Task: structure prediction
Amino acid sequence: MREQLSLSESILTRSKKNKIIKHLTTARLLLAGFLAIILFGTLLLLLPFSTKSGVKINFMEALFTATSATCVTGLSVTPTAGTFSVFGQIVILTLIQIGGLGFMTITSFFYSMIGRKLTLRRRLSMSEDMAQSNMSGLKNIAIKIVLIALGSELIGSIFLTIGFCIEGYSFGKALWYGIFHSVSAFCNAGFDIVSVTGMSFISLNGNYLILLTTALLIGIGGIGFIVLVDISEHKRFSKWSLHTKIVVIMSTALTIGGAIIFWFAERKNPETIGNMPLLGQWINSLFHSMTCRTAGFASVNIEKLTNMSSIMSMALMFIGVAPGSTGGGIKVTTLYILFAQVFATLSQKKEYVVDKKSIGSNTLAKAASILFLAITVLSLSSFIILFAENKRDGSALIKIVFEQISAYSTCGLSMGITSSLTTLSKLVLIIDMYLGRIGTFTFFMSFAKSRKIETKIKYPEANINV
Result:
């Protein structure tokens, strides 16, 4: 009798487990995974030895910091250097590394190292996390991704350590600064431990070695792991995939174009780059354009930017970097697809063909959905923050919109209003950072039915004037 009862209990338990697994889609698994990491990081940051002696943070500040680190954003309600101890900084750095590489990529890497096979569910989750449609060779890709990331961060640490030694720091401190900022830059996080007042790299805007090394790390991390693997395997441009070509060309054009616009707008502004030598102006312009691609380091005072630079910065943040990278935004490929479709429509072509390949209707629909969802989230979030802050003047509106775009695109640049926001506003930014890292398309897809219902019924196309 007891054996029958235990067998019945075992069958019921297995049935419940199967039901849970059935509803746990890859998108839901990613959402739950990142949320679990954020909450665990929050608890670690609340430990007494995570902050410096005499400094205490509340739950909201710990949650905001953990979310910003895991979502590789860089927005902060408290200066990292002036608030957190070395242990707290290590926690933040670990969250940045996990958030940048993607927890599915990291777990898949360790599974591969110990000889475990990747299950179909794990491969689906990994392909979703990396924005990779093809699941073949994911095990080798995971290994290459981790090796490329660690290799880039190691080389970056060496050059940044030299740069901080030039600034007069002791070797031990310069080494820790080099490691921290190399990981933060490659993962496009934007966290720094240089300034205790939260002024980022402003005090280092004359150290070209630090700025150029950081900018290069940001660029490498921002073009996407699949692109890095493709470039490492195929040295010639003609052998690259269409995705890689689009990402490299778009990223280069946006970075150089942004640097030129920034220099033109700020060259006579003494509160940013106006008093710098010409070489310094160009390096800082390039650095700012690169950091707007969702990195979040600042070598000039963001509050003092001209209107032209502010608009340009928001545009670059909104666009972001490449899919499957360490950064956010709507992605450069989304922008390319939308522009290509507009060009095809104006040219009265039914499809846009590039490199002997046409852009499919599903790809176009996803790009349009991503743009629409991004605008919707930013608009709703801005309205809520404007209501919570009760701001009516135009300058406050620009700062709030700037902050919103920075949070959603996981950039981290700020006009200095983050710490002064109300609890409701901070909560909205936390949600924005989470949605920006996961992707609004993935987030809303997680609530859709897991089974696709195909129908053979075809309805006539509607004629709607637009």
About this structure: The chain is about 65% helix and 0% strand. The two ends are 71 Å apart (CA to CA). The chain has one domain: 25-445. Residues 25-445 form one domain.
